[in-house]
Write a structure and sequence with these properties.
2 domains, 5 helices, 154 residues
Length: 154
Amino acid sequence: MYSEKVMDHFSNPRNVGEIENADGVGQVGNAKCGDIMKMYLKIEDGIIKDAKFKTFGCGAAVATSSMATEMLIGKTIKEAEQITNKAVMEALDGLPPAKVHCSVLAEEAIAAALQDYKAKNGLTEDMLYENCNGCCQGCGAHGHAHGEFEEDDE
């Protein structure tokens, strides 16, 4: 039912805990299943240096939180904004359909923590598109993943 990676991240979660004086904190929950996820970020010079989480929920919620923190560390804010629930699921070698909402929670927790960081630092939403070089260099402005675009017929 669960992949080896999901079981590993559930049994041995990475980056559990809080970051004192975190630069960004985001908490999200799913009323349907009762899962609550809180993400903490330490950001220096636009790079995520540390990420920790506290999750109340099922094993899949713990595993997606753990994987999400691993995916965040070392990323720029712009790169972190591009982490989707699909990317988290792929990194865990998949989730059962009934547990996909856990990966969505991880994506939402990342977004909430980044939004908190931006609000604390007076950064605008427009930064998402800063230095965008066209379709699609990773800004996500056109609703498709980085590197997935249609070639124009010339």
